[in-house]
Amino acid sequence: MTFTAAVRVPSRGTQRISLVVAGFGQNIVLTTVMTFILVYLLQYAHISTQGMAVVTAIITAAKIFDAVTDPVMGSSIDMTRSRWGKLRPYILFSALPVAVLSTLLFAVPDAAEPAQLVFFGVCYFLWGIAYTVCDVPYWGLIGSAFPEAAYRTRVISDVRAFGAIALGLATLGMPWLARLLSLGSDETTGTGWTLAVGVISVLGMGLFLLAFTNTRETHTPGAQERLTFRQLFGTLMRNTPLLLVLLGSVLGFGRFIVQAGGAVFVVIAYDDEVAFTLIGAAIIGGMVIASFLTPVLLKGMSARTLVVASSVIGAVLYLAMFFAGFADILVLLAFIFLTGLTLGIFLVVQATMIADAVDDVERRTGLRNDGISFSSLTFVSKIMNALAVLVFGVFIVIAGYDAAATVTPEMQQTVFVSLTLVPAVSCLLSAVPFLFYRLGR
């Protein structure tokens, strides 16, 4: 029996909307985990300062492991042949594991701390693997579904913009949802967080499945012979523009420290985790505006010029934020908004540069390796997040903060340095490799 629906090709607009909505769903789950996991462990699982050192090591090790396995995942995608293509099957079968494991991360049992750390460590490693399986093919699918560079840039900017909106909704809404679901209590509880993350994970990954149901791959399984890992990796290593983007991205890890540690910082600085909604709203507003603005800017300047400018301006803003301090939260919010603009520009241009590099190597070699090339995007994102969590965790340990600690001005200032001076130096270092990027617009 033949099903005509199986061969129906959705319109370009339908595929664009579906990928944007899928990215929104995926990002709201990712943002919830990355933004609130440290707050949950400190405030609700009651992990000690010594335990947080172990947590930081677990997260860093897991991120590095995930990053190393990304190219393996990418090459597996490029060697996959199925009736659904090489990218879409992974999207279909990864949604449920990501939803379940995301919830378990916020369900640490009330037990001795070593048992809690083991539970968290196992769940976090499994979560990282599951998220890799969903994230790498998603970005490869954007490159495959939209071969036209200009239109693809618009799709990427939409995905980044709605990813920032997802970040905003999670940042603003999750503390309130957790409090609402803390049934029978006047304050937020650990159980409230478990239920809130469970609800968001199911909804988010449900939306993510639109990337499977409503998209098609331009490069069909029969369009190119099955490539070996040696061919794929060799092509990747010869792609100099791509390697420069990766290096510049890793050096810019400091851009993610506010996201990794901002919720903890507001507890230390203002004694109110809900105040992070203001910080989140500021950075997200900047990212959303920048995501829609970047395609316009790219019409008048090269990607290299734009990414270098955003890095240098970002460094200046972070330095100014340090000297302005955090006593006046309105001043802090203004700086956070402006740094959000530079971050939004960077994220759109970064993905666009990688997509252009994939097209360029296909023109030069005849080989298209969406999987392994776009795995490099998730690779550097994980390395950046791992370094951000590692650096912030180190500053938390140096400051000596835990839920039972008495907050001092010295403790506040130590943590504030990690959110300002470290990103400033990181942005400057990030600009250097991009200066040598020679691929055209």
What does this structure look like?
With 441 residues, this protein is an all-alpha fold. 77% of the residues lie in helices and 0% in strands. Helix 1 packs antiparallel against helix 4 and helix 1 runs parallel beside helix 5. The longest helix is centred in the last third of the chain and has 37 residues. The radius of gyration is 21 Å and the shape is globular. The N terminus is likely disordered.
- Summed up, the helix count is 15
The CA-CA distance between the termini, in Å, is 47 Å
The main β sheet shows up as: none
The radius of gyration is 21 Å
Structural class: mainly alpha
Strand proportion = under 5%
- Number of strand segments: 0
Give the overall pLDDT as a whole number. Answer: 84
Order of helices and strands: HHHHHHHHHHHHHHH
Q: Name the overall outline.
A: globular
* Helix percentage range: over 70%
Which spans have pLDDT < 50 for at least 5 consecutive residues? 1-6, 220-224
Produce the secondary structure layout.
Layout: H1 12-43, H2 49-78, H3 88-105, H4 113-145, H5 149-180, H6 190-208, H7 210-213, H8 229-237, H9 240-251, H10 257-270, H11 276-298, H12 303-324, H13 329-365, H14 370-399, H15 409-434
What's this model, at a glance?
Helices cover 77% and strands 0% of the residues. With 441 residues, it is mostly helical.
Give a quick set of tags describing it.
15 helices, single chain, mainly alpha, globular, 441 residues
